[in-house]
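Narrative progress, year one. The postdoctoral researcher (J.K.) led the effort to move from monomer predictions toward full complexes, under supervision of the PI. The following entry was the first complex the group processed end to end, covering 283 residues in total.
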Amino acid sequence: MSAFINSGSAQLAVLQSWSATSVLAPAVLVVIIANARYLLYGAALRPWLASLPPLKSYGTLFFVGDAQWALSMLRFAQGQLDAGFVLGSGLAMYLPWVAGALIGSGITDLIGNVQLLALDFLLIGFATTMALSAWKRTLLLPALAALLAALICNRVAPGGWTIAASGMAGGLTAFVCASSSRAA
Amino acid sequence: MQPDFPIALLTLGAAAFACRAGGFFLMRYIHVSPALDAALRATPLAVMLGIIAPVVATGRVADIAGIVVAAAAVKLGVNDILAVFIGVAVVAIARALGG
């Protein structure tokens, strides 16, 4: 499962819905909802990967993940232009991900409660450090819009939509800001 | 394991990949204007905030402490990865203490 889907949030959500029913269609929907944010990620990577042949660019996209995508975007903003970075960092996340799933399914009894070890905090911790590196004063309004969207969406429909909603709200706000500042 | 499990797995994998490739594919037919470029540049921060905000909204003291400490560590010049692990340690300790 980890090897094919390569998306923690989607897999978790699928496992939850799948334990209730064994019908496939809802599980597919869950994957799409949980992964809606990858539409944004892929779109944002377009300027960087566009020059590659399709097999390479789409092959690279398979390995894109949350933290790795954010890291790649930071490097791109800093002038790192080698698209190999996206693939390299993607593989660096993917291989331990699959290996970890194999090891984990064997030794979950030994580790015991993952929550107690706070390993579930890893993604949140990375999101925190990435947000700090990505922060720019010009992004204040998009950031506020993203926060607002995340909090509202989290109340109304918690889960996979939250990240997509905040991403779109931030992007949309930046779009409007950029349009109006050019018009002025 | 059910006999149709491999089919299900491939279907779910295809759905996940469609999301990854979809945005990239669509952008091929859209001209990247300066405004759209600004939007794409703003998404990483927005997405990261989308991950953090729901956690803060839960009000769990341990997790919030972890976020604050990890952020403070980065501000003090600690390496990002080390800062994350410091945050994890704080969360683990706080949870063990019942936070």
